[in-house]
Design goal:
- The chain has no helices and six strands.
- Strand 2 and strand 3 form a beta hairpin.
- It has a four-stranded antiparallel sheet, with no helix packed on it. A two-stranded antiparallel ribbon has the order 1-4.
- About 5% of the residues are buried.
- The protein has about 80 residues and is an all-beta fold.
């Protein structure tokens, strides 16, 4: 999985991916800049947070990612409606 984050706020942010046995951080990400987190994740629930060390007017709500089991390989199979 690869997540690309764009900081569209006026403050630098640290982005955290956390869940199961994974904690991955990127940052601080400067205003107007981007960062990428790339990680292989096991099935489960993960949270992505963008924090700031400064007090901010509006807190950014975390996003929750639900990773399911691997799908069956569909190579050379036509899917019909």
């Amino acid at each position: 999985m690869q997540i690309t984050i764009s900081n569209q706020t006026d403050s630098e942010r640290t982005v955290t991916l956390e869940g199961e046995s994974v904690t991955e951080q990127q940052g601080p990400v400067q205003p107007g800049d981007t960062a990428t987190i790339q990680k292989t994740l096991e099935p489960g629930s993960y949270e992505v947070r963008a924090g700031s060390e400064k007090a901010v007017r509006k807190e950014i709500q975390p996003a929750v990612l639900e990773i399911g089991k691997n799908r069956k390989n569909s190579n050379n199979e036509l899917l019909l409606p």
